[in-house]
Structures are given as structure tokens and as C-alpha cells.
Amino acid sequence: MKVVRKGQGPKEEFTSQNPLIIGEAWRENLVDSEHLNFGIVSFAMGARNKLHTHTSDQILYVTHGKGIVATQKEEVVVSEGDTVLIPAGEKHWHGATKDTEFAHAVIMKSGGTTAPA
Predict the structure, then answer these.
(1) Mean pLDDT, rounded, for 94-111
(2) Rounded to whole angstroms, how far apart are CA atoms 105 and 58?
(3) Of 1, 26, 29, 52, which is the most exposed, with the fewest CB atoms less than 10 Å away?
(4) Where are the domains of the chain?
């Protein structure tokens, strides 16, 4: 068993190292096991990522604020407590609204990759 307390996971700033991020964003990696990767991604007001895909399904659980999750066909405003399933290969983006910060937990298969769409 492994317990990681809130705020004790390694936190990395995404902005300078990730060309898919627009604005300021951070990721706190909490669990990276043989099968699953779990962390919290936080976006400053108006920050988001660019259109991208993943090689595995992605589950987002909104933990703070209000954000947008979008595909090429629709944009949905999500808020604390909402859960989003993004199937592998679906082109999408997500991030904060212009007037709120936004954070979500993210669960993906370990070893899955992300690529610009």
C-alpha cells in the first residue's frame, strides 16, 4: 500500500516544458503504478491545453473551479464533481474558463502517450 497526502506528490510546472499548454498549468503526480497513472492538473485562469489525443482512455474528475472540455464538435463547461471520459484517440482539449482557476484529477493507463492533434 502507498499513501500520498494532499500536496506531498511531486509537483511540476507544465508551462515551460509542454508545448501543448497555453498559459500556466501544474501537475502533481500522485500515483504511477504498473497499470495506472493518477495526478492532479491545475490551470490558472484562462489557461488550457491545445488540441491533442491520448493512446489510452483518460478520465478527468473536476476537483476545483470551472473549466471547459472540448472536442472538435462540442465544448462543455464542467465544474467541481463532474467526471469526463475521453476515449483513446479522441481529439480534445481542456482547461480553465477565463474567469476561474480549474483543477482536475486525471487517470490514465501507465505508459500511455499524448500527442498534438
Answers:
(1) 97
(2) 10
(3) 1
(4) 11-111
| Radius of gyration of the CA atoms of the chain, in A | 13
Considering the domain 11-111, what is its CATH architecture?
Sandwich (2.60)
User: What would you measure as the largest C-alpha separation in the chain, in angstroms?
Assistant: 41
Residue 74's contacts (CB-CB under 8 Å, 6 or more residues apart) are: none
Instruction: Return the SS3 of 15.
Output: coil
Closest CA to 38 of 27, 25, 29, 47: 29
Whole-prediction pTM value? Answer: 0.92
Position 79 pLDDT exceeds 70 = yes
**C-beta separation of 36 from 109 below 8 A:** yes
